[in-house]
């Protein structure tokens, strides 16, 4: 499905239902919830929405970046009541993982290898293991580290915050423009999520981070990286967070026998692309271009778009590079006003897009796109069905 259009009603892939938890900053309302509990609750509600028996699921695919091994997708599937005979796998492409899980599910359904797949992502910064490298020599102490390397070249493996500041300087995107983008993200998010979007977990029913951010407050924040007119700050960098999100991807053959609380979305095309590891924020531009070409659409034909806001500068560069109308982008806010649960973030974009397109006329098309460390980008293009299932 790498940038080519899906054809044929029976073998096409559809998103029938989409759910997520609220997003909470690390150490917040979801801090005591293990990843499998977080995702299991979302998956159980997703299946209930569509009237799908757990035994009818062919596979579960979840993205995750921080768990430290094991197979959190398997634990989540079992926690959701899916039978032991149903397989599950976890994939790690860092920030792209949640969206990549959905692309993988669509590819398998198009190939005829499955007909009903739960796909998405889960992340808990709060419950992530502490990382230590084993000593090389006897007597050495273990060495703590925050993140693994994303390339084999240390000089081309920047930390993400300095990379964002460097991108701002290269593209001439000012701190004031970034601040304004972040303020607008919070403004849009404060209207609240769409009805039926969020599954309550640990009593949390709304994203916890959105606030009345003002230009004056944003301007007072100290730079995290960069200097002067192109610096990035706590307002323009998404906070670490906990969340889960999942969609139900089904074949055209099974679509008519199931129900949905809205119009199903046909997956027209998806793409994954690599780019310069030093400028990871730009990788979604090529992925989105490939997905749009595969769908036979221009950016101007889209009704809604969800673009990852790991950094204001990255989102702004992608909106400009994909030539999107800013008015259709992240209409309910983005990661700057929610938080960035790494392995779940791409799936959250897909869930948000599903609910945004329910507000549009039948046949409306949408795009979601996300970048990942190491210079990766993923994108998905969907179109709402003219029919609405009961």
From TrEMBL:
PROSITE patterns: THIOLASE_2. Its EC number is 2.3.1.9. GO terms for molecular function: acetyl-CoA C-acetyltransferase activity. Coiled coil: none annotated. Residues 15-251 form the Thiolase N-terminal domain. Residues 271-383 form the Thiolase C-terminal domain. Keywords: Acyltransferase, Transferase. NCBIfam families: AcCoA-C-Actrans (TIGR01930). Belongs to the thiolase-like superfamily. Thiolase family. This is Putative acetyl-CoA acyltransferase. It comes from Blastochloris viridis (Rhodopseudomonas viridis).
């Amino acid at each position: 499905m790498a940038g080519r259009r899906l054809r044929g009603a029976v073998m096409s892939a559809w998103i029938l239902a989409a759910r997520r938890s609220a997003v909470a900053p690390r150490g917040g309302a979801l801090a005591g919830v293990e990843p499998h509990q977080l995702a299991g609750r979302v998956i159980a509600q997703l299946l209930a929405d569509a009237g799908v028996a757990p035994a009818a699921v062919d596979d579960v695919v979840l993205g995750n970046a921080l768990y430290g091994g094991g197979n959190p997708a398997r634990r989540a599937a079992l926690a959701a009541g899916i039978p032991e005979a149903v397989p599950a796998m976890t994939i790690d492409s860092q920030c792209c993982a949640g969206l990549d899980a959905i692309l993988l599910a669509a590819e398998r359904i198009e190939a005829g290898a499955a007909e009903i797949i739960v796909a998405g992502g889960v992340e808990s910064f709060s419950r992530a293991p502490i990382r230590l490298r084993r000593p090389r020599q006897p007597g050495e102490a273990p060495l703590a580290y925050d993140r693994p390397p994303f390339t084999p070249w240390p000089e081309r493996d920047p930390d993400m915050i300095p990379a964002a500041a460097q991108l701002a300087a290269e593209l001439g995107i000012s701190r004031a423009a970034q601040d304004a983008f972040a303020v607008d993200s919070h403004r849009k998010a404060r209207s609240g999520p769409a009805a039926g979007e969020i599954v309550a977990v640990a009593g949390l029913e709304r994203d916890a981070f959105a606030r009345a951010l003002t230009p004056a407050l944003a301007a007072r924040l100290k730079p995290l990286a960069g200097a002067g007119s192109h610096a990035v700050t706590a307002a323009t960098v998404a906070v670490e967070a906990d969340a889960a999100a999942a969609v139900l991807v089904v074949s055209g053959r099974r679509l008519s026998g199931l129900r949905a609380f809205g119009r199903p979305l046909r997956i027209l095309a998806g793409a994954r692309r690599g780019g310069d590891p030093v400028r990871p924020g730009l990788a979604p531009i090529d992925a989105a271009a490939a997905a749009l070409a595969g769908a036979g659409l221009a950016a101007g034909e889209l009704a809604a778009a969800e673009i990852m806001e790991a950094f204001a500068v990255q989102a702004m560069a992608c909106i400009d590079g994909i030539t999107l109308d800013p008015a259709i982008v992240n209409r309910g806010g983005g990661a700057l006003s929610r938080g960035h649960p790494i392995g779940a973030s791409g799936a959250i974009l897909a869930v948000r897009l599903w609910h945004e397109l329910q507000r549009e006329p039948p046949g409306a098309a949408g795009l979601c796109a996300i970048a990942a460390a190491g210079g990766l980008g993923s994108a998905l293009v969907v179109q709402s069905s003219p029919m609405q299932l009961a």
